[in-house]
Amino acid sequence: MKTILRSLPVIKIKRVYDEADASDGSRLLVDRLWPRGLKKANLALDGWLKETAPSARLRKWFGHDPRKWKEFRQRYFTELRARTETWAPILERARKGNVTLLYGARDPDHNQAVALRDFLIPKMSKKIAKTRKRPHAEQDGLQ
Predict the structure, then answer these.
(1) CB atoms inside a 10 Å sphere around CB 102
(2) Residue 89 in domain
(3) Within-domain flag for 3
């Protein structure tokens, strides 16, 4: 019997100034502010989800200071839990294929796209696990 392995969709992050790639899938800007020096017409973009970004107050408090990273993530996750409707469309797209979260910050390790991806990945894997369990539940009459 031949087994076909299908790769699962991926949530990637990429600096908005980096070149678009076919493997990016849906390209979503997750900054509250439009990136400096870019014209909207020149950016390969499938959506701008500015409401998914941290609040202006949290963004200003963080100021991309790596020393505040742990606390920033906690505060941002609290904001995200209160605004499911802002990030649910990302998971919907991720169920269909790759998603790339675009950000403008210079620091590739301490920015809202990294935190958002880290917040979403466990939710994506839970959804996939639920989807995989469903056919067995129907078979066993456990719906």
Answers:
(1) 27
(2) yes
(3) no
What tokens were used for 102?
A: 């675009």
pTM: 0.82
Domain count, the chain: 1
pLDDT digits (tens, 9 = 90+) for 71-126: 999 999 999 999 999 999 999 999 999 999 999 999 999 999 999 999 999 998 76
Boundaries of domain holding 118 = 11-18+25-34+43-129
Which DSSP string corresponds to the chain?
A: ------PPP-EEEEETTSPP-GGG-EEEE--SSPPTT--GGGS--SEE-GGGSPPHHHHHHHTT-GGGHHHHHHHHHHHHHH-HHHHHHHHHHHHHS-EEEEE--S-SSSSHHHHHHHHHHHHHHHHHHHHHHHHHHHHTT--
Domain-located, residue 142: no
Q: Does the residue 119 lie in any domain?
A: yes
